[in-house]
Amino acid sequence: MDEMTNQRTMPPSDQPVKASPPPPGSDAPKPKSSSGKMAGVVVVCLLIVGGAVWLARHRAAGVEKKGPGAGRLELPPVPVVAGTVAQKDVPIYLGGIGTVQAFNTVTIHARVDGQVQKIGFTEGQDVQAGDLLAQIDPDPYRTALEQTVAKKGQDEAQLANARVDLKRYADLLANEGVTQQQYDTQKSLVDQLVATVNADQAAIESAKVQLAYTTITSPIDGRTGIRQVDAGNIVHASDPNGLVVITQLKPISVVFTLPEQTLTGIQEQSQVSGPDLPVVAVSQDNATVLGEGKVAVIDNQIDFTTATIKLKATFSNTDLRLWPGQFVNARLLLTVRKGSVVVPDAVIQRGPEGAFVFVIKDDQTVQVRLVKVAPQSGAQVGQGETVIADGLRPGERVVVDGQYKLQQGSRVKMADAAAKPASQKPKAEDNSKSESRSKAKS
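Now predict its structure.
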């Protein structure tokens, strides 16, 4: 009986023994479900890893679909103005600030006193040498001339009488009619009268000169300025202000300065091509050529206060584009650089590493390229060009305008290539292109 009871109460060995729940109201702690939390963490990690893998594959698929540089192509191309690198012979100039000076300047003064009867010119008139400028009242000087002429006639009559007496005394002296002293005295009187007549003749010449001074003529070819004296006024030879100023405009001179370091090069070039080196006068904005001339003289000393050498050039100035007192930029042609690579001035950009340009490649993207600007690259005056010593090849396309939006690899479009008129570019074509673009975006 006891054995049967034991068999009933003992569970089989192959079945797990279930733990009996704690009696209600007991303070025993509940078991923690750690396995469930671990499973949740694993699921979250798998989701994160899967999302990352999906996002990476999606981006890779997009890159493969659009090709290299697709990220940049999403930005619209930058409109720029393009230019072509040229190769040509470039004249090299030495530049300095110059002042135009009249070839000759004359202030016309009255050389005698008197009243101005006539003004023979108009202000700003071109006059030739010998043209009448003014007429001073000649009557007082004509009267003075007549007086000297009369005085000479009187003295000549006395001289004639003295010579007759001298001849008579000579005959008497031979017959001892007069003494030697009387003869010598008469001879001295004749010599004295001869001198008086000569003085009278000189006075006549002086009176003629004074009379001639009453007619004022131009001493040079030139242009008159503003009149300083009107007809009817009394003028004096001692007046500080003249009647008018005449300036010779054709030819004309330009005086300019260059650094003293350029003197050696100028002298060497003068020995090769001669002393008359070409000079170009340019407006202050370097946009207009005002005239072409040649060096007339190099100053004989260097200004030690400014370390510059002064030069003077002569211009024919047939078109009167150079005016006395005008400030110009003088360009002395030193040499000509054969086969130089040139670009417009606006192409050159400056950065921390030096000068650079934006070169347009065949795929309409730009490349930042460092260049070396040649020294003394004055280029052709008025052309706005710069000589490149290294970094560019003839025929390459470069950006002339619109660089402020560019960087390495930026895509560009030519702003100077204007859109075609509607007659040459149907609207249907535009609509089809816009539809294809919208489908591609979607």
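The chain has a mean pLDDT of 82.
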